[in-house]
Amino acid sequence: MKRLNLNAVFGAAAIVTTAGLWLVLSVVKDEYAAGLALFGGVGFWALFFALKAAVTRGLSRPNGAGRERAAGKRKPLFGGVKERARGIRAFFSECGGKVIASMSVMGLGQLLQKRWAKGAVYLIIQAGAAVFFVMRGAAMLAGLFTLGTVRGNAWYGVEGDNSVTMLIMGIFAVIVLIIYFALYAANVRDAFAAQKAIERGKEPPGIIQGLKNLIDAKFYKTALFIPIAGVCLFNVLPIIFMILVAFTNYGGAIVPPALVDWKGFESFAKILSLGEFAPTFVKILGWNVLWAVASTALGYFGGLGLALLFNKKCVKGKAFWRAFPILAYAVPGFISLLGFKFMFSAGGPINQMITKGGGATVLFLGLSSKWISRVIGLAVSAWISIPTSMLLATGILSNMNKDLYEAARIDGAGPLRQFVSLTLPFVLFATTPVLITSFIGNFNNFGIFFFLRGGFISEGYFLASDTDLLINWLYRLSIDNNYYSIGAAISLIIFIITSAVSLTVYVRSSSFKREDTYK
Amino acid sequence: MKKVKVSKALDAGITYAVLLAVSFVFFFPVLWLILASFSKSGSMYSFDGFFPKEYSFNAFRTLFTDTSMYNYPKWFFNTLFIAGFSCVFGTILVILTAYAMSRFKFKSRKALMKTTLVLGMFPSFMAMTAVYILMTQFGLINNRWGLILIYSAGAPMGYMVQKGFFDTISNSIDEAARIDGATSLTVFIKIILPLAAPMIVFTSLTAFAWPWSDFILPKLLLKEKDLYTVAVGLMSLGDEEFARFAAGSVFIAAPIIILYFCLVRFLIGGLSSGAVKE
Scanning every residue of chain A, which has its alpha carbon at the shortest distance from the alpha carbon of B232? Predict the structure, then answer.
């Protein structure tokens, strides 16, 4: 009976805090956020108390307990789900007033349980979150939906909204919100666990134990905290930003101070339907696929062949011969690319030799030499990528079981047969993941034509040359010419293509299907 | 019997011919750049075909003394600064990530692995505009620390090779230490790190080589000429400055080439251990 009273008291406290939050937000005059907080708060508590009442009543009914026992027998298939459901039910029926206190204000329950340090930490987090969301966060979240309402006008001294900053800060606020929810859940879980411990007459784990855990059983949390935070801020946030930009009209004439708006699939329609973008997109996509397949195959099989060549018994001084490709491997990529550009340039050494022999200057990388440039690009890419796959294949071949070859030789298999039935399957098996990453890398090989040709615009192409890959076009559109939403839509299309290809290859490959073949 | 011998000799002959051809293909462009860096006149037009007519250390001298237009020493210092710090921070973060992912079977582990896999499939600089805007928000445009921040933060995405390596270190070692009362932190510092020395070498080498030769980020984020890195600076040199370009390239490529040759053993191990383990 006493516990029910406490429930009522803290339920009231919860509703008061919700109302308080609503009041504060209304004073700050952000009606979106205030409305959201009011609806969210009232809805949350109504749902919680309704569920609590329902679960408590359901458990006190005799057949409820019977049903649970019956469920316990049929565990195997949905064991995990059932377990979880039972945990949730236990939480709703058993959580006491102090847990509810922690639900209304983080840390309050811990303080009532006389766990001062932990309570203080959670209370500080709660206060920090409240200050952040009242001062900035709520407005940031609202900005994500409106993308700004006041157009800036320097003439009248109106400082308008910057839609792009609002978009980014909105995403940032969502990430903060997710972190806040995670901490909030941890806080409630902690209060509940402590309540259970007290009920069983044990001492609830203190903050010292928690800190000790962070360097021992839960060391992964300490280790992963900074990496995950960094990746979220510098990888996830920008990617989400670009995904969202694809659905706006950001770009062209619409850059701040003009206001950006949500436009749905308009950019995709622009790329795929007829217009200035569609023909260029189709042409570049075709070449891009051809390029990715050709350059990956060339680099991969070239490297494998080289590794096999160096592995031959009759080759003396392997380390010496291997040094040349390694030299090429060690030269920074941009130096190789710029070097080859100089080599094939109009005044370069090859042209000097041609003119000296009486020929006319050949513009290898000029505007009109589409296929010559493409072939040179493939050759240069092979020069750069073959040494990497050579090193890789060397490492893998040294892991191979020599007895297999001995057995094959005794059975009368020639060198070709040995290669096809033994070496190739093993190497393919071991390198499928690398093959996929190198395919993606080649599909998005920005450097090669950026350095070799740069800057051209070919006839029949919109802001691109006939050797450009999608990634080059993307760069030209978004960084050089402000077509941000179109660029973002293209990068989403690139992502869909590369991820679809790599996932199908990976799932169909033997290294996925029969993981243990060579173990 | 004699026939076998002849075919063997033929095989060896062809093999060596191919070896020579391959070595020539890989060595010639490098040799060309090295010799060009020692040419007396700077312009490419004065060369006799591939190679300069007269040799001297002129290009290297002007590289470091004539800094009014192209301040190579400054570029070099900037590159070293950025690559050095990124290497230190990046290596620490990658090793920590790989260790945590390899040794702890926590709840969200699979989800994290899949997420990184999917994130890796996005075009690498699709998010460049966003990074640019983010950096303006933090006030880190035209600031070398901004680049260090991005390189270090991005490094943990490539933790797979290192995780594969940690997977091969037997669990029984940690368990023995744990029975003696060691915490995960002590196990990591006292036992795992010394065992992982080759992998740390490999990681720091790759973590250094990436910022050392990257051109996209510095071009985007460092607009002032004084803050250029070598990659951006060398891009601005034309045909007339070919010798200077070659000298600058040789000077920046030499340290990394020497490093690679010293560490080639680790390279082969690192590359293939990441491939075999998925």
Answer: A334
d(C-alpha A161, C-alpha B22), whole Å: 60
A349 with B47: Cβ contact below 8 A: yes
Which domains does chain A possess?
113-264 (no CATH), 268-513 (1.10.3720.10)
Q: What is the DSSP string of B232-247?
A: HHHHT--GGGHHHHHH
CB contacts, 8 Å: B19 with chain A: 309, 315, 321
Contact B215 A334 (CB under 8 A): yes
Q: Tell me if residue A247 falls in helix, strand or coil.
A: coil
Question: What would you measure as the largest C-alpha separation in chain A, in angstroms?
Answer: 107
Q: Chain A to chain B, count of Cβ pairs less than 8 Å apart?
A: 264
Contact across the interface for B153 and A327, Cβ inside 8 Å: no
- Rg, chain B, Cα only: 24
How high does pLDDT run on average in chain A?
80
CB A206 within 8 A of CB A166: no
**Do A239 and B127 make contact, defined as CB atoms within 8 angstroms?**
yes
Torsion of CA B9, B14, B20, B21, to 10 degrees: 170
Q: By the CB < 8 Å criterion, does A510 face chain B?
A: no
Sign of CA dihedral B112, B116, B119, B121: negative
Domains delineated in chain B: 73-236 (1.10.3720.10)
Express each pLDDT in A445-488 by its tens digit. 888 888 888 778 888 888 888 889 988 888 888 877 888 888 88
Residue A197: how many CB atoms within 10 A of its CB? 14
Query: For the residues A495-518, what does the mean pLDDT come to?
Result: 71
Q: Which stretch of A12-26, A128-142, A181-195 has the lowest confidence by average pLDDT?
A: A12-26
Instruction: Give the pLDDT band (50/70/90) at residue B77.
Output: very high
